Structures are given as C-alpha cells and as structure tokens.
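On clarity, I found the account of how folds are encoded harder to follow than it need be. An entry of this sort, consisting of the sequence and the corresponding backbone structure tokens, reads as follows:
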Amino acid sequence: MSDTLPLSIQNNRRMEKWIRFDPDRTVRLAVGKVELGQGNVTALAQIAAEELDIDLTRIAVLAGDTQDAPDEGQTTSSQSIEVSGRSVRLVTAELRARVLDRLARRLNCAPAEIGVDDGTFRRGNAPTGHDYWNFVQTEDFAAEIAGTATPKPHTEYRVVGKAVPRRDLPAKVTGASFIHDMVRPDLLHARTLRQPNRGAVLAAFDEAAVRRAAGGDFRVVRVGNFVAFVGHDETVVHRAAAAAPAHARWDNARQITPDQQEAAWLVGKPTNERVHGDPPMADPPKTVIEATYSRPYIAHAAMGPSCALAEYRHGTLSVWSHTQGPYPLRAALANVLGLPTERIIVRHAHGAGCYGHNGADDAAVDAAMIALQVPDQCIRVLWRREEEFGFEPFGTAMQVTARAALDDTGKPVEWTTEIWSGTHVQRPSTGGNMLTHEALPTPPPDPKPTDPPESGGGGGTRNGLPLYDFPVRRILHHLVLAPPVRTSALRGLGALPNVFAIECFMDELAERAGVDPVSYRLSVLSDPRARRIIEDVAVRSDWAQRGPAGTGRGLGLGWARYKNKAAYAAVAVELEVDQEVRLKRVWCAADAGLVINPDGGKNQLEGGIIQAASMTLKEQVTMEGEGVTSIDWKSYPILKFSEVPEIDTVLVDAPDQPTLGMGECTMGPTAAAIGNAVAHALGVRIRDMPFTRERIAQVLLG
C-alpha cells in the first residue's frame, strides 16, 4: 500500500506531523504546500473539516514551516490540491477511523453507529460524553499513517464542494499579511549591489561616492563579489543601492545583443537532444505542412518585489520567505552557508505575486548571508524594482514548429512538435543557481540544464503532444544549454507556447481543409471530457454565428488538458483589432473533477486567463549590453485593469471524479484562443508573441 500513497505521505509518515488537537478546541492542520494566492490553504482546511466532521472555523492551518510542518517539496505544477489535498483527506480519514474504532470498542457497538457533530461523538441521538479533544491519545498520532482508511463518499459532503471565502484575503486586503510589512525586533534594512552576471569580478568600488549619494549612515557588508548596504534607515540604504551601480566597475561582465532576446536565437545553439513519442511512419503521406510559433523571455512581474527576513541568533538561522519551497530553500541555505540543516528554520510568509520561481529564494539567501555577518539582528532585504526585473529567473523563450503529414481529407496522421527551449527548472535545492552563491569567493560549478521528466509533466515539452486521435505523435526537444539569461519555472512552464502552437496550427489546418475549426477538432477527438468543454464554449460564445475573417472582429478558440493529465480547459475569446488588440469577452469551461472550493477554482481559472492574455499581447523581456533593459513597468508593460475583458466561466460538475490540478490549465488555451481570434479578425496569422501594435503593423504590411 505504501508505494500507492501520495508522495507527501510517503515522506511524512507520522500522523503528528500533520495534525493535532489544541486545548482551545481547535485543530491545527500542518501542510507543506504554501499559500501563493491560489486559495489552497482554505481548500485544504475544507478537506480536513469534511473528513473529521468538525466546523471549518475550528481548523487552523500552518503552512510551510520547516520546524513544524511536513516536507511537501515545492508548491508547484498545480499539485497542491491534487497531491496535498489527497494526503490531507487520507490522514484525516484515518485519524477519524482510529478514534471511532477505539470508542466503539469502549461502547460495545459498531463504529458505524457513532456519529460526529463538530468534533463531538454521539451514538444514535444520545451523547457519549466524548469528543476528539478528550478522547484522542498519544498513540493516535505516533503511529505511522497506513493510508487504508476509506474517506467519505462525495454524496455525504457538506463542506467540500461549497464556495467558502478565502481565509488569507482579509489580512491581505488590510495590509497585515505580506512579508513586506513584517517587523521583527532589532530590525535592520538591507539592499544589495548585484553582480551583473556569473563570473563578473568587482574590480573597483567607490564607497565614498555611494555614501555621499545616500546621505546617511549605513554599513557595507562585502563577501567576495557580494555587496550589501545595511542600516536602520531604509531610505538611506535604498539610496545607497540605487547609486552603487554607477560607482562600481566589473571585469568579465557579459555583453548581450538584442537578437539574443528573441526565441529564434535559440535555434542552432548547443543543445541536449531528446525525442519523445512514436517512431516515424514507414510510409508517411507526401503532404506535409508546418508552421513555426514563438514566445519571448517572460518575467514574473510580481506586484511586490522580492523580500526576505533573516536573523542568526544563538547558532540558529531563522528565515522568513515567500518561497514556493521552504524545505528546498533550507537545503540551499545549508549548502551556500555551510550550516547544518538542523540549525536552519525557514518559515513561509505571503508575497505579493508569485507564478513560479521568482526572486524570493535569492532574496532569502541575501538576507541569510548578511545575517551571518551581522548576528543578533533581524535583516530585512527588499529588492528594488529594477533588481527584480533585471535579475529574477525568467520564463525561457521558446520556438515551436508544428509539423503534420496529412491524409487525403486534410487530417494529420503523423504529428511532430519540434521545440527549442532553455531550461524551465533551476529551482533552489543545492544552492547551485543562487545569485549570492555565484558571487562568493568559492562559487558553485555552472548548473547543468535539466528539465522535468515526462512523468512529471515535462518542462519545455509540457503539453507538446496533442491529445487528438492522431496515429503517430512525437516531440523533438532541443534543450538549449546556455541561454543569455538565467531561466527557471514560470506559471505553466512550456505549456503556454506549446498549446499556442498546437491549437493555432489546428486552426490553420482546418482552414486549409475548408472545415470549421470546432468541427475539425471534434472530428479527430474522442475524449468525451474534452469534447464536452469545447462544445460548451462554442455554444456560449455563439460560435455558429462567427462570421467571415478579416472584418476586424475575431472569435477564436483553444483547449488543452494541462500536462495531458490534469484539468481540462477550453477558452473562447472575442476581440477587436485596429492598431492594437482589444479583448471584449472570454468564455471558459473547465473540468477539474471534484472541485473543493468552486469560487476559489474559478478565481484560478480567471487569473490564468488574465495573465496569459497579458503575456500574449504585451510581455517581453528586453536585453542589451550587460543585461536586461526592461526594468520598470513602462519597459515591461502588463495588462491593465481597464483592458481586462468580461469573463464567463463554467466548472463542469464532476464530484465523482478525482480532483485535478487547475491552477495553470487556462494559460495555454487562452493564448491559443487569442492567436486564433486575431487571425480571424485580420485574415492573416501572427505566430510570434507578443501581439504588439508594431508586430501587427509588420504582419499587415507584409
């Protein structure tokens, strides 16, 4: 049984790591997945309340604490509810079964005769005088989790499946929740001077000029090529950090040319070559059609720059971070700083935006490094906006060629997706890809580019295999070894550009065959769950009245199953194109199986739609000289509130199906739907993101 348990339970087998009953008649549920704005902590509390039959208000959740919560790795890949939720369900169902079984023996009855009302046990309608708080025993928590208890059937749910307000929002709305607002005793503020790139050496630094510009007192902390400014006055250290780059001279600083910011630059560079899927057909059809699509480098563009607090007291390092993985960050800190992991505590605190591996972990290492040099103080590091845009890990550029060998009816019988991409995962675990580590006197070896395995959904190959009924499907993956900037995880990894390419190419093939795009898709798609959501958005968007191409108004559609194994989503987009694209309305249908909190689920779907629209229409990291030039909101624009369209979202009711991760499932379908709608509006196809005014003009002018 143990090998079929969720990985979260396999790595945390003792019940006491997950749950305890406190004297104030509350229940503390501890989880390793953290709240990044997706509402997962609320949903996990719902699952625990449901299985224990305890009022939801009694469930207090501790999330992301290496001292008191289980190690569930990273909060990534839309797995919080799919994996951690399953774990919480099994843990709480087993605890309930253990307690009721022992109580039944005392009462000389069957466990099924005992009911639970808000944690109080009754036999029939008669009270037993017992509840969880006075009947649970130490051995209930000390034993290993077997995972054999049967959770409730969905037909008995009273809490799961209901829209519940997110419990993290009140503090965020009032400004009391974010790490940026944390205040600790003995607080000192810190800013850094960033090494322009791995291997750059600080040859000269005019500290006197920086002090004059700062206009106040501060301390300079320097370890190798790592430089920080520390003081009581945040304004002074901020001015010091802003002035420092102009008074620093670096040897061995790289030079970047503007062509390196484009996905096309990746083609022909040194790569690791990978092939996934079916071997080529022995005698393929002679009609072969292909088209190439691209996405540039993308920033996380979090509303609040990365921030961390750290203090080194009595031989213990405590760190507060908006990291996605407290335990992996602890391992990275141990490696960078040379401290044993048992002397490091990492606690999660809310950040203002995440969507993947941003600068949170780097800021935490910054703060920890300074704390070791300045012990018995709390060091608060806040990145400047220019630092956030210039040095966070980016979502890699990707170029994708879709190639199809067609039969006599114009349908693919052999499909190839050829992908050029940098790595999507250089997350902290050993510290080998951390900015501060690279600046130390003994930097780590250059990290080796890797990508998640196909069993984990892939990285550059994520959603690269279409789920249509094509006899032969394969991926040719060129993992580029040395992109010009550091890249890592950004929401959806390679799913957005791959779904964009596949679904736009399907529209192009439908046009070539003279068939309506929805009818064309359905003719090569047998999965009933996929067909249902496509048909739903087609009806609600009035697809049958779509009209001809080239009128300036467009309606487009795209769909995918995230990672080809998680939630299904179909998106239709109505828009207008004149000099630029204006989104008018979006329809979405998603099938995520059992949805714990429908309101939270819709929030995730709609958030993915808005972010994908922003990426598709506006976003691109630009580079030249020593690094990134898109270092503010003017040079890196995102979708404005006034540009957000009306969104009509439907969740398929499927409580009898397993819960599927849905936090990223609308990203690719939205990009594809916009691409197809723009082509419908213009009568000409744009295959490269973002769809800026300049790119539209370029395509229209040939």
Observations:
- Residues 2-166 form a domain with the Aldehyde Oxidoreductase; domain 4 fold (CATH 3.30.365.10).
